[in-house]
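Box 3.1 A note on notation
Throughout this textbook, protein chains are presented in two layers. The first layer is the amino acid sequence; the second is a token string describing backbone geometry. Keep the layers aligned when reading.
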Amino acid sequence: MSEATMDGAVRGVAERLREAIVGKDAAALGARTALLSVVGDDEAGAAIERLVAGDGITASLHYDPSLPTTVKLRVIARQQQLLRIDFETRPSQEVLSAKLKEFGERLRGTDVVVLSDYGKGGLAHIAAMIGQARAAGRRVLVDPKGDDWARYRGASLVTPNRSEFRDVAGRWRDEAELTAKAEAVRRDLDLEALLVTRSEEGMSLYTAEGALTIPAQAREVYDVSGAGDTVIATMAALIAAGASLADAVCIANEAAGVVVGKLGTAVVHPSELA
């Protein structure tokens, strides 16, 4: 991650490929983490490799010479994020096919799979990836994007934020209607669970056993960048360690409360959790 002064107190933070942040979050919690992604053959792609190398993450980056690595520019004033600008190009099918092949090979040494869909084209084969992982007996966690969730069918857990879930399920008037919508989506997509992160309202977990809502625990919010990444990475690390979904959600909620009190896409360490 690099930072450049733009205008006095206003700063732009260029973030290279958020999948790396999910990996750093999981590694910070003690999980053995592997990152599989597509980058361009450029300085930003090299920066990702350097970013994860120091955290003990096993990185397998497929370089696409026709692709500039996705870069996100965040504008921050008075320690608050104002807006984000994305610079992106979709990867080639050839590189994506090579990544899919390696994904299948890597499943043998994996307990939990996290698929972070940022709508940049890197997960064009996500339905096949979920199918392969589930056939291999691996649990699959998905951070969704867009309003077409059919491609996430069969995942173990999908973790939309409040706005993302509203785009798919529509608005709700009360908790009962939200629960009904969440359960309908969970059943329709054959999900083990659905976790809706709800900002100041905390987060709600929906499973066949019912709904569980955990109140938010943020002290003071400086920057929400990467909060969803922290949630899904914490869930993955804990599920891989044998925790129940309910226990994992409680700790992920606490981790999210810690990370939004930091500036930028930060990580949470075990010592920061009660």
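The domain at 2-88+97-272 is CATH 3.40.1190.20 (UDP-N-acetylmuramoyl-L-alanine:D-glutamate ligase). Residues 1-18 have pLDDT under 50 and may be disordered.
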